[in-house]
Amino acid sequence: MKPFTLLCLSIFLLAGARGQTARHDTTRVYSLIDVAKEKQQRGEADSAEYYFKQAGTLAEKLDFDNGRLAYTNNYSAFLYEQIRYEEALAVAKELLALSLKLNNRQRAASGYNNMALQYQAQGKLQQAAESLMKALEISAEIVEPSEKDLSDRRKYYNNLSSLLLDMNDLDKGLSYAWKAFEIAEQLKDTLAMGRSLVNVMVAEAMANRLTDAEEHGLQYLAIGQSFGDVQMELRAYSNLSDIYRRQKRYQLALDTYQKAQRLLKKAPPGNEVYILSGISSVYKEMGRHAQADVYFEKALAIAEKELAKPQLIELYLSGAEIKEGMGDYKAALSFRKQYEKINDSLRNQETHHTIQELEVKYQTAEKERALAERDLKISGQRSELERKNTWVILSILLVAILALTLLFNRLISRQKLKTEATEQANRLLEAQLQGEETERARTARELHDGVASILSAAKLRINAMEEQDPYANSMLGQLIETAVQEIRNISHNLAPEAILDEGFEHAVQEFCRRVNHPGMQLECYVVGELPKLGKNAELLLYRIIQEAVANMVKHAEATEGIVQLVGEGPRLSITIEDNGKGFDPKTRKATGIGLKNLASRIQLLHGSQEVHSAPGKGTSIYIEIDTGKVVQSAGAGVEAQYTG
């Protein structure tokens, strides 16, 4: 082999070896990060930090940008867990700057999210909201998100839920917690489901939905135990203890806090203060203020170092209540002032308004993107449909048209049957009323021509006998005159010739006059000019009034009544009222034949009726007829006239 060939081969092998070494080194960055995360989960904080820094140093040495992104993203989350918020914020800002430089939108969203966590812990809620919304906006830009993208979006929703809960906005906090949980369910990620449940549980506890909160707390605990996640298990015990305290199950709350205490050695810092302050709150509510104060002072000693500001205000408020219970009003006032100072800065109206505005803007943008995605899908579906065979589409259309035609024909047939049934019922009713009127006319004629004639003849005979016994004959004559007049009234009521001769208005007035007697005062009023109706319609209305008044006299036990006729153009309204004993319309509807007859007759005239009554409060019947709609042949009438 020639020397030149050997030289080229050596260079090639050296270059390949260097490439393999470089790939090995970059892979080692990720391996170091994985080891660090494993140590972090086990609670070995010092060892975890060592491996994180090793990964960061190697990525910097290799000028390996993706390695730097992975390092800064995970290391900032680690520092946050270690309550080193300022350091975590600085690393998160490095992550964001590098992501924007490399135009890596996914990592930029992680940077914004990590910055939001630090701002929230420091009590800078407005900056936290702004950063978190930017993370969500980037996430929402992804049209077809991968599992990793959805997993990140779940984190952002969960963190937004936590932020809103710190602002005491429970409804929205719970809503975003459930959104995070739904994404975890979609991904079938049980651990992520548990991390979303914690905010669900907290929101429900704050809203005093304690049964739901306890159920979700136990689910959260089971997930933590199954995955060996000490931090999750400890948080579950801590939050369950708080729920038991709110349920006033104080001993169970203390026992559960003890379970949490046993896990402190394996967990990252920042948990002990929650347990100490929680135990203090339990004793405070039990009225054992001295014991509560012991745990409060222990919690206070580490609170400012370990507690985030939104949680610090709750500790100050609890301390004020404990000191007040012990009679140490000076210390109570001091803690109350500290509580008010932080509370005002965290939960002021301006910050809350800004966060709401950011949320609305995000939701609006998200809806607009959803609409655009929908339009894009519709366009694709339309194109797909256009590629299908025309005969298939025509067949579908033909079937649809046939189905609609059959449906339409069926509806028309039903309507026709319904109309015919109504018309048949009306015809039957008209025939019934015609028969009633014919029978009334026959009865009236017999009374008038038969019984009344006989009584008149008897009166003449008695008048001729007055000379023999004037007093007795006079009394008999008066009785027969009364009987003749009563028969005449009955025949007039049965066949109201006044309708045929002098009109509807006069007939009603005469009827009311005849009903009047010392025990029953019935007044008749006519307002305006009554519209003209056909004789048959007028007779039907007369019968309606007659039946209503008959009910008044027979059943209502009334002493006073009114019949009022009002004419307004083509509209006729009739009011019939009495001061009788009244009735319950609801119970009477099912059994009252009189009301049914009344409604049937009014239906023939295409009118409407209202009946108002109550036991002991009389009865009022209001009838309204539009004469323009009345069929002139409505009802039944008689042509015979009678003279009395």
Q: What is the secondary structure topology, with strand pairs?
A:
Elements: H1 3-42, H2 45-61, H3 65-81, H4 85-101, H5 105-121, H6 125-140, H7 147-166, H8 170-187, H9 190-206, H10 210-227, H11 230-246, H12 250-261, H13 272-285, H14 289-306, H15 309-325, H16 329-346, H17 349-387, H18 390-464, H19 470-494, H20 497-502, H21 504-515, E1 521-527, H22 535-554, E2 560-568, E3 571-578, H23 585-591, H24 593-604, E4 608-613, E5 619-626
Helix pairs in contact: 1-2, 1-3, 2-3, 3-4, 3-5, 4-5, 5-6, 5-7, 6-7, 6-17, 7-8, 7-9, 8-9, 9-10, 9-11, 10-11, 11-12, 11-13, 12-13, 13-14, 13-15, 14-15, 15-16, 18-19, 21-22, 22-24
**CA-to-CA gap between the ends?**
153 Å
Helical content stands at: over 70%
Q: For the record, what is the CATH homologous superfamily label of the domain at 503-629?
A: Histidine kinase-like ATPase, C-terminal domain
The largest sheet is: 5 strands, mixed
Please tell me the CATH architecture of the domain at 503-629 by its name.
2-Layer Sandwich
Number of helices: 24
Give the ordered list of helices and strands.
Answer: HHHHHHHHHHHHHHHHHHHHHEHEEHHEE
Anisotropy-based shape? elongated
Strand content: 5-15%
Rounded to an integer, what's the Rg over CA atoms?
A: 47 Å
* CATH-derived topology of the domain at 503-629: Heat Shock Protein 90
At the first level of CATH, the class of the domain at 503-629 is Alpha Beta
Question: What's the arrangement of strands in the largest beta sheet?
Answer: 1-2-3-5-4
Q: pLDDT under 50 segments (min length 5)?
A: 1-15, 631-644
In round numbers, the mean pLDDT is: 78
Number of strands: 5
Class by SSE composition: mainly alpha
